[in-house]
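Bumping my old thread because nobody answered last time. Still need a sequence for this structure:
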């Protein structure tokens, strides 16, 4: 589909192709096929090409050849089950291997195989939703195989809360888009559409009950569309909320970069903190490895590649020692959730870092968009897989908390898209966010409250 040759159905694997969806700020890249290709000229598709027996390798080759993006500019999110379909017009039975990649930029270089490109919400692939743009066959089906889902959000143990909250908004957006497209054949059903989308929103809230930012942003979509209460309203609200969420996270990072000094300490992987560090480029950065996934090591490697900072990685157990012995000007951490009293729920180890920094007189900045403020006083702490700590046969109780709670009186400020807030200001933000919950039965939560471990982590 993306090679500069005509289709030869007699050749080995000539019907097997890869299709990659590159995602940036919630949009995906569409490419219009030029007259230089053998099939589907003038139609829009993803990055595609013949699989040549190794789809996982070939897809990266196609991305480089068709967009000019090298491997470090894209990161694989997931691959999906192949889409098989017959096209009688060209007498070919296609097998499409779909992939989803996150992309750091929208700047690409077209090859001769395409003559135009656009970044669009994936729902624009649907008939009766986006512009009148003819796409290659089964493009939406291929996207659905790799699109975010309630299941993928519940099982994701790698990404932070802000990232997952945007994925939750994409789930709502995509389903609302499907319902809008179905109106062309089934007609509108406002009540049925609202009921289905409200049920989906409830499942998203249950997927990660400890993540306030996911809860607040899903509530914002539904609250912003309940006047009309139908699929088009939810679709428009989801698109608007995705842009708002991404802007808030970027603005919080930009604000935080102004607070950073020459030498900083951090842990885990917060996309907002990473963006702040890359923007400010402190002379020295100390990063705790952040077991069990050791995502702190990935942060250290990234900073060593993208900044001129001198980066040191160390064990979690050495946190207090490093803060006491090294010349560190500020500690900076992300937040999974900020409670109404200003205390912070974040990756386990944050409490150790912050209390040790407070003991040494080192100011502590928590970087979080205001949507990360919880409307609830209670804490729901997820736990990780016990085998990450101990996989032996002895009768030993295993504790593997994923998150811990840092007291507000150890935090200097919470840096948000609105600027730096003192912990005592957080209660006012929580009150604003409670208003977004009124779409749910008078504000009563439909989410099952649990305090045990998250089954998705087992």
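Sorry it took so long. Here it is:
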């Amino acid at each position: 589909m993306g090679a500069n040759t005509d289709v030869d159905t007699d050749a080995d694997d000539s019907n097997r192709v890869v299709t990659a969806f590159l995602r940036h700020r919630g949009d995906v890249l569409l490419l219009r096929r030029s007259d230089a290709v053998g099939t589907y000229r003038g139609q829009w598709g993803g990055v595609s090409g013949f699989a040549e027996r190794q789809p996982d390798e070939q897809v990266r080759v196609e991305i480089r050849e068709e967009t000019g993006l090298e491997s470090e500019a894209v990161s694989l999110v997931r691959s999906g089950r192949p889409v098989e379909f017959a096209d009688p017009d060209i007498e070919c039975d296609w097998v499409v291997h779909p992939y989803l990649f996150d992309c750091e930029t929208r700047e690409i270089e077209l090859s001769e195989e395409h003559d135009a490109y656009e970044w669009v919400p994936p729902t624009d692939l649907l008939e009766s939703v986006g512009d009148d743009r003819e796409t290659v066959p089964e493009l939406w089906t291929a996207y659905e195989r790799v699109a975010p889902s309630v299941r993928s959000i519940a099982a994701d143990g790698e990404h932070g809360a802000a990232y997952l909250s945007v994925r939750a908004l994409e789930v709502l957006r995509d389903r609302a888009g499907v319902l809008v497209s179905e109106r062309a054949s089934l007609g509108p059903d406002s009540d049925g559409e609202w009921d289905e989308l409200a049920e989906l929103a409830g499942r998203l809230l249950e997927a990660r009950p400890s993540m306030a930012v996911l809860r607040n942003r899903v509530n914002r979509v539904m609250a912003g569309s309940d006047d009309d209460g139908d699929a088009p309203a939810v679709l428009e609200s989801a698109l608007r909320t995705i842009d708002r969420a991404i802007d808030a996270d970027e603005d919080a990072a930009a604000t935080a970069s102004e607070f950073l000094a020459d030498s900083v300490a951090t842990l885990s992987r917060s996309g907002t903190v990473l963006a702040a560090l890359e923007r400010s480029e402190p002379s020295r950065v100390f990063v705790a490895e952040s077991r069990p996934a050791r995502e702190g090591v990935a942060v250290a490697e990234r900073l060593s590649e993208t900044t001129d900072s001198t980066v040191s990685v160390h064990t979690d157990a050495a946190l207090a020692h490093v803060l006491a012995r090294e010349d560190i000007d500020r500690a900076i951490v992300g937040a999974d959730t900020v409670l109404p009293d200003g205390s912070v729920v974040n990756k386990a180890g944050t409490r150790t870092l912050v209390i040790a920094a407070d003991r040494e007189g080192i100011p502590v900045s928590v970087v979080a968009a205001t949507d990360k403020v919880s409307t609830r006083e209670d804490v729901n702490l997820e736990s990780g897989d016990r085998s990450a700590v101990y996989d032996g046969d002895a009768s030993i109780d295993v504790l593997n908390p994923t998150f811990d709670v840092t007291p507000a009186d150890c935090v200097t400020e919470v840096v948000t898209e609105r600027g730096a807030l003192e912990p005592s200001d957080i209660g006012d933000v929580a009150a604003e966010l409670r208003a977004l919950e009124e779409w749910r039965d008078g504000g009563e939560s439909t989410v099952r409250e649990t305090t045990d471990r998250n089954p998705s982590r087992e």
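The CA atoms of residues 67 and 336 lie 35 Å apart. Let me know if any region looks off to you.
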